[in-house]
Amino acid sequence: MKKCSYCGKVFPDEAVACNIDGQALFPLAPALPQPAKARSTRKLLTYIAPVRAGIVVGIFYGGMTLILPVFSLVFTIIMHKESSPTDFDGSLFVLLAPLAYAALGLIGGIIAAVFYNLIAKFIGGIAFEFRDAPPAA
User: Is pTM, for the whole model, over 0.85?
Assistant: First the structure.
């Protein structure tokens, strides 16, 4: 197969010149195998289930604050060596902080999901693009 260098029309191998514009024809280069492209899929996040979002955020916040009581209790012990063993100086609050943060995360997650769903109705949501992962070596 040959191709016109001017108009791009393809002709059989026997042709010498383009019958449209008279330009010389050049042989087409053989097609090289193309590597497989990663498929791209574009998705829109248009809805978030409020209760599920609240549960996830609540567990996340509660889990993150599980570290807080350990450091606070160690700090309290170091700073108050002279205090009596029954004097906690707010340690009860530190022990209850993960529960408080989990509850606030639950409520905040639900509210955030509801607001997102309202906004997504008008703007279409957040666009996400997904690609297939390459095979593991």
Answer: no
The domains of the chain are located at: 1-32, 40-131
Q: How far apart are CA 64 and CA 53, in angstroms?
A: 16
Please write the tens of the pLDDT for every residue from 41-53. Answer: 778 878 888 988 8
The runs of H, that is alpha helices, within 32-127 are: 50-64, 67-79, 91-123
CA atoms in the 13 A half-sphere facing the CB of 3: 8
Burial 43-52 (b: 16+ CB within 10 A, else e): eeeeebebee
Distance of alpha carbon 118 from the chain centroid: 21
Phi-psi region of 89 (alpha: psi -120 to 50; beta: other; left: phi over 0): left
Which segments of 15-49 does DSSP mark as H helices, in order? none
CA angle (44 as vertex; 35, 40 as ends), nearest 5: 0
- What's the confidence (pLDDT) of residue 38? 60
Lowest mean pLDDT among 36-45, 50-59, 98-107: 36-45
